[in-house]
Fold:
Amino acid sequence: MTNLNYNTAELVCIMSARFLEDGKIVFGGAGMPLISCILAQKMHAPRLTILFEGGVIGPQVEIGKMPPSTNEQRAARRANMLLSITDILLLQQRGYVDYGFLGGAQIDQYGNLNSSFIGDADNPKVRLPGTGGANDIASLASKILVAMHHEKKRFVAKVDFITTPGYLHGGDSREKAGLTVGGTYKVITHLGIFGFDEESRRMRLETLHPGATVEEVKERTGFELLIPKKIQYTKPPTEEELRLLRELDPDQRYTRPKEE
Amino acid sequence: MMKPYRELRETIDQKDRGLREKVMSLKEAVGLIQDGDQIAAGGCHYSRTPMAVIWEMIRQKKKDLVYCRSITSTEGDLLLVAGATKHVITSWFSPGVTWGVSRVMRHYTEKKLAVFEEWSHMTLGLRFRAGAMGIPFLPARSMLGSDIFPRLSDIKEMSCPYTGDKLALIPALNPEVAILHTQRCDPYGNVQSEGLPFMDQDIALAANKVIVTTERIISNEQVRRSPDHTKIPFFCVDAVVEVPFGCLPHECYGEYEPDFQHMDFYVKLMMGKGPEGVKEYLDKFVFGPESWNDYLEMTGFKNILQAMVMGRRVYND
Structure:
């Protein structure tokens, strides 16, 4: 164990970065996902290529000048190529994109995400900004990583609205709907790493982060998780991971601890 | 909603597609837009937004427009509160991730005062692409299985006649008018662009009319020295308007970054007071000034200079 101090957002960021392998291609969103991607490049994946929905292939984003959106000039810095939005998203349909990296307001036990409506879509409590490219990414990229703060109101049995398809209603429903590839690969929260059962496609706990407990995970999850008999633990963040992360986001614009 | 193919062809057929000058004032150009038109805006989010045209549309009290854009930022709030549109077709609608969810978008959609027709980013792009290609739809492998799909009235699913794969059929979108902003354009409408292309080319080819605002008008001789930079051919374009800083407070690649101070000021007003705050903004910054240049002056020279210095950094990096 370690005595390093880190907040929950930093923990999620570091744990997510570890899943991004060298030589692969990742579709990164603005904010935390982007920081994770760059952290992965600096740690273990120097040949990881980042794509942005705005039409950017392989940018070198300036440290301390993170683009607040992936559809703008700063996001295009020192890229290999700038493409139209339609064409960059179509690269996924052809099969070039290994990882999609997403967040959302809600996730459910089958890894579906909602970023459209809280409450009934016809009479919403909150109208959220919408899918952007998330629906396309989750339909077409080979593996989807989801990074989220672990809260009961966000981890629900059934999302109010499937903006972004995971395994839909479980089993083979994703394939049957016509989504023959991809699916939610890992969900990374401040408590642990979660995957999906190969048959039922229900979410399961894979590893707990140091200090987290199964009880806390259960308490903060609005559905029944699959819990392994023997609990494994994630390796804690290293000093180097934390140092690099804080260099990338010195003002904690994107890695501020989550308010609840 | 889909326009008949023959009608689309006839509209083009009736245009004078010869090399001719199309330079006009902002007022004249926006005069080409009719109430009720389906308008597609180029750029994306707060980048290369044809803001001066939107500003003038509001001043001319256009109404019942259907506003289509890949990602909609603050200009969507302005159009809703001004009553220019009650129907926005987009994939994402808010000022930007760091500024939170638009209170105006929420007000208008949650109170059912306006429709936010949500498409995924790629499929909205495919709608313009199909429109540009002169075909009624393009198949795609996204949107399937989602709850977005059944809420849309004009999307269908089919089995591929070759493979049996399930596909979503994405209908063409041929807007009445495309409004685009670029860095350079000649008097004939040869549009040269730098940086992120977004969906501008497909939008221009899909539309019946195209209005281009440009940071600067360049000569046709200049265009001919670098024809590879021309992204939209002159015969698609109906109006060319020179509007320096025509995207502010949004950005234009290589020219200026967003005026972040003005954006922060706007968002604070909009999030604090909702539609009332935006009404105040419209009165002051849209209906107040005599001209676009007067509006720019109101936003402040120092702000613009700062945005410009940041924007030009792409040429010294």
